[in-house]
């Protein structure tokens, strides 16, 4: 059944296009523990624990949550310094070990060849970090810098998903409406951000490590408002249709 014309596909980056979350949280666990220690907080985090608690959030959003959780306050200049330090540590790790999510490169290539959609990245992560990930994964050719939107560094006031601000900002800059887009997200915060912006959303759960976790996240993201759940990038065309993309507009041979 025909519903609307989709002109733009907006991709989250971390654990949607590239397998970066575990690497990023591994890199920032040491810095987070340094901050906690300096404020006399006894708790310490591993990268895996940070990933479990803060997946989908950028480091500034994580710092805000840690300050709220442990009742301390970072001066803005100190918070800015830690954010810059974390970005450098993460980029170093990504350039060393990062790989693409399974199957996504073939989909991106076919989408680009079809010419039927404009593609962009909408991320909570800093623009420099996203570009480093895309370059390492050989995906930057599909996403030039002006098609990469960061909640941490693109907005006049930095924020993080689940705030819908970065999606609304991306739509404005791309000259399109939320309903003409489809977003692809893997996390609760990212899915909530897209849904709050009024963008039809495909939930990607293929980056979660176990079948149980994939099924749990599929249910969670469906409950948030996912129009379709994608376990594998090979299912992308079917998910586009479920998200309301006209069959006649779908990329050929996907």
Helices and strands: which structural class? alpha/beta
Q: What is the CATH top level name of the largest domain?
A: Alpha Beta
> What topology, given as strand order, has the largest sheet?
3-2-1-4-5-6
Q: Provide mean pLDDT, rounded.
A: 92
Looking at the overall shape, the CATH architecture of the largest domain is: 3-Layer(aba) Sandwich
Would you list the SSEs in sequence order as H and E? EHHHHHEHEHEHEHEH
Distance separating the two termini: 19 Å
* Largest beta-sheet details: 6 strands, parallel
> What characteristic shape results from the CA principal axes?
globular
**Whole-number total of structural domains:** 2
CATH superfamily of the largest domain: HAD superfamily/HAD-like
Q: CATH topology of the largest domain, anyone?
A: Rossmann fold
Count the E strands: 6
Radius of gyration using CA atoms only: 18 Å
Explain what you see:
- With 254 residues, this protein is of the alpha/beta class.
- 48% of the residues lie in helices and 10% in strands.
- The protein has 2 domains: 8-20 and 99-249, Rossmann fold; 21-97.
- It has helices at 21-38, 47-54, 59-70, 76-97, 104-114, 127-136, 165-174, 188-196, 211-224, 236-242, and strands at 8-11, 118-123, 148-150, 181-185, 201-204, 228-230.
- A 6-stranded parallel sheet has the order 3-2-1-4-5-6, sandwiched between helices.
- Helix 1 packs antiparallel against helix 4 (76-97).
- The longest helix has 22 residues, at 76-97.
- It is globular, with a radius of gyration of 18 Å.
- Residues 247-254 have low confidence and may be disordered.
- Keywords: Hydrolase.
- InterPro entries: CbbY-like, HAD-like_sf, HAD-SF_hydro_IA, HAD_2, HAD_sf, PGP-like_dom2.
- GO terms for molecular function: phosphatase activity.
- Pfam families: HAD_2.
């Amino acid at each position: 059944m025909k519903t609307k014309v989709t002109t733009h596909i907006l991709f989250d980056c971390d654990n949607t296009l590239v397998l970066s979350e575990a690497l990023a949280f591994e890199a920032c666990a040491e810095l987070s523990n340094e901050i906690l220690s300096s404020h006399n907080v006894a708790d310490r985090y591993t990268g895996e624990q940070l990933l479990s608690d803060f997946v989908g959030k950028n480091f500034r959003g994580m710092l805000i949550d840690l300050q709220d959780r442990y009742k301390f306050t970072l001066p803005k200049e100190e918070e800015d310094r830690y954010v810059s330090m974390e970005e450098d540590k993460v980029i170093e790790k990504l350039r060393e070990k990062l790989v693409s999510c399974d199957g996504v490169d073939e989909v991106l290539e076919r989408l680009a060849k079809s010419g039927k959609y404009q593609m962009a990245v909408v991320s909570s992560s800093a623009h420099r970090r996203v570009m480093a990930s895309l370059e390492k994964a050989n995906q930057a050719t599909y996403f030039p810098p002006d098609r990469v939107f960061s909640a941490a560094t693109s907005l006049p006031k930095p924020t993080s998903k689940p705030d819908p601000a970065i999606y609304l900002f991306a739509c404005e800059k791309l000259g399109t409406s939320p309903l003409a887009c489809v977003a692809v997200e893997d996390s609760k915060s990212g899915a909530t951000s897209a849904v709050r912006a009024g963008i039809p959303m495909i939930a990607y759960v293929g980056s979660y490590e176990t079948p149980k976790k994939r099924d749990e996240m599929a249910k969670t993201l469906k409950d948030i408002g996912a129009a379709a759940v994608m376990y594998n990038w090979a299912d992308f065309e079917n998910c586009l249709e479920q998200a309301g993309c006209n069959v006649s507009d779908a990329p050929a041979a996907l």
